[in-house]
Amino acid sequence: MIKRPLTKALILSLGFMAGSAAADQLLDRARSTFEPIPKYPPVIDGNELTQSKVELGKMLFFEPRLSSSHLISCNTCHNVGLGGDDYLPVSIGHGWQKGPRNSPTVFNAVFNAAQFWDGRAADLAEQAKGPIQAGVEMSSTPERVVSTLKSMPEYVERFGDAFPGQDDPVTFDNMAIAIEAFEATLITPDSDFDKYLRGNTEAMNEKEKEGLALFMDRGCAACHSGVNLGGQEYYPFGLVERPGGAILPEGDRGRFEVTQTATDEYVFRASPLRNIELTAPYFHSGAVWSLDEAVAVMGTAQLGTELNDSEVQAIVAFLKTLTGNVPEIRYPILPPSTATTPRPTDMVP
Predict the structure, then answer these.
(1) Distance between the two ends of the chain, CA-based, in angstroms?
(2) Which of 52, 65, 192, 304 would bridge 162 by S-S if both were Cys, CB 3.0 to 4.6 A apart?
(3) 137 assigned to active site
(4) Which residues, 6+ apart, have CB-to-CB distance to 254 below 8 Å?
């Protein structure tokens, strides 16, 4: 009479133990592939993140007078209120020109091995210089930028505080270094996935965990791993099956434009997936607005498998656990222009 309850209890106990072991195994696998975002900005070689430098960089990030039109700032295309990008397929720059690629998010960009879709900038300081000088973006020059900054006494004082001991601290290089210092603080820790990686197994529900398992089992994590779930290596877009021209425009040959190496044609940096639900539209072309569709495209193009609806939904559920605590940024009060500040150029000739 007592064997049946004991047998049932034993089965339930064994089932619980098996489930617990499977849960531990999933967490162990995830920890071997991914890392949580740290709670504090990382150390940058050669760029100490002092308060004066970060505050100056913040002002410069929002400073539209770095552009020749006095209209476009870093924040225009990397809007900290919109997931760190501009929510456009491709950015609009000087003269209302369309840029060639979708604007990557600035959030957590400090964890990327290189910047831009083709990795042509080694770090955030080098990246900051590019758009300012690009005719299709901010359409300015280093000389004009320095002249603009030196025309405002508050900037001269702030550069002196941020770069003490330098005879002439207001330089184009120091501008970029200050912007890098501010951008390094734009990290988004404490996502549900980060909590899970740190041991809180209740931070993700069963569907999200199913999506995590699929993300690893189907091969997504081969390119999207580490702290930023991407941003480290370069891969052909269309590794197995090339997407259509709307998603992969023929004229943009990716990293080939940097290396001039034939094997780098249509090769791009694996996109970081942190906060991906906030950064539509997707891919370097900005051609896909739905995260579900983006996941399905990656399945056929990169993995050579057609994910079913249930698998897509589970992976998307997991990807949404990557949304962290976005920093609250107060718009800075910028110094007034003076009589010697270069006047804006017309956006439309």
Answers:
(1) 94
(2) 52
(3) yes
(4) 117, 118, 237, 264, 265, 266, 267, 268, 284
CB atoms within 10 A of CB 282: 22
Distance CA 322, CA 243 (A): 26
Q: Where are the alpha helices (DSSP H) in the chain?
A: 3-33, 51-61, 74-77, 124-133, 142-150, 153-162, 172-183, 192-197, 206-217, 256-259, 291-298, 309-320
What sign for the dihedral angle of Cα 241, 243, 249, 250? positive
pLDDT computed for residue 11 by the predictor: 57
pLDDT at 4 over 90: no
Residues 6+ apart with CB under 8 A from 129: 142, 172, 176
Residue 261 tokens read as 């190496």
Rounded to whole angstroms, how far apart are CA atoms 166 and 182?
20
Alpha helices in 94-229 (DSSP H): 124-133, 142-150, 153-162, 172-183, 192-197, 206-217
The pTM of this model reads 0.92
Catalytic residue (choose from 63, 137, 183, 210): 137
Coil, strand or helix: which one is 100? Answer: coil
The band of 7, judged by pLDDT with boundaries at 50, 70 and 90, is: low
Tokens of 200: 């809180």
Provide the token pair at 101: 């690629």
* Mean of the per-residue pLDDT values of the chain: 93
Q: What's the token pair of residue 166?
A: 């330098």
Mean pLDDT of 77-106: 95
